[in-house]
Amino acid sequence: MTDDEIDDILNRAASMPHEVDPRLLDRIGESIRPALSPVRPLPSPVVLAAALAGLCVLVGVAGAAHLGFAGFHKMNTLQGAVIFPVLGAFVWLAAWLSATEHIPGCRRSLTPGALLALCSLTLLAIFVSLFHDYGTDRFVAQGMTCLTAGLLHAVPTAGAAWIILRRGFAVDPLASALASGTLAGLAGVLMLELHCPNFEAPHVMLWHMAVIWVASAAAAGVAITIRATSTSKHG
User: What is the torsional sign of CA 49, 52, 58, 64?
Assistant: First the structure.
């Protein structure tokens, strides 16, 4: 049998009428009609990003207000003028990516992985240039305190971000989790920069930055676990 003969058979089959009983169509329509209702459209990416960024800043500032603004009061003008605008820029980028990752079809100029790398390298470079005390007094004890406090602010940020984004759809759950984890970690870092008076460079570079790294890794781990569980159920 030649290709032309196969095409001819398929074309004849496609042109044959396939009548469906109108009563069956009516029953199908009646069964699905009660479930049909207007769907409230998602807010625009800008609105979602603004809500997420506001959430991140609110958690960070509220946490510092509760614990005290010792770090902010100890900073000199240059340190404050550099650190907080840069943190604000990365909060907005993380919020924007978190929003667009939940809206299929949105254009993305930066991947969440690239954002995490850029955020880490930029903040580390800033900390190196602004903090010159390389002492390590009570390095682990104070570091674990800051890491714990930062993560305690990252967790509610991640939970509230999920509530804001729950009506969206993440085409790539891992990328979405990484963006949201970075945003949550930035809330913890913002709180620490406002609160923590320990300006030893090793402390800030490791323990403050670790909040972002741990939050991002934890969010990615949750996404991978959910995907693996879903795959095993449908496998």
Answer: negative
- Phi first, then psi, for residue 200 (nearest 5°) are -65, 130
CB 176 within 8 A of CB 216: no
Token pair in block for residue 173: 């759950």
**CA distance linking residue 230 with residue 235, whole number of Å:** 8
Distance CA(163)–CA(52), nearest Å, equals 10
| Alpha carbon distance 85, 25 (integer Å) | 60
Question: What is the model's pLDDT at position 183?
Answer: 97
| 69-80 pLDDT per residue, tens | 999 999 999 999
Tokens of 17: 């009428």
Residues in the chain predicted with pLDDT less than 50, given as ranges, are none
Structure tokens at 122: 């930029």
Q: What is the pLDDT of residues 105-141, one digit of tens each?
A: 777 788 999 999 999 999 999 999 999 999 988 999 9
Classify burial at 193, counting beta carbons within 10 Å of its beta carbon; exposed 0-12, middle 13-18, buried 19 or more.
Answer: buried
Residue 16, H or E segment:
none
Residue 74 in tokens = 């100890």
Surface-to-core class of residue 77, CB atoms within 10 Å of its CB (0-12 exposed, 13-18 middle, 19+ buried): exposed
pTM of the full predicted structure? 0.81
Q: What is the pLDDT of residue 94?
A: 96
Distance CA 8, CA 3 (A): 9
* Contact criterion met (CB below 8 Å) for 181 and 113: no
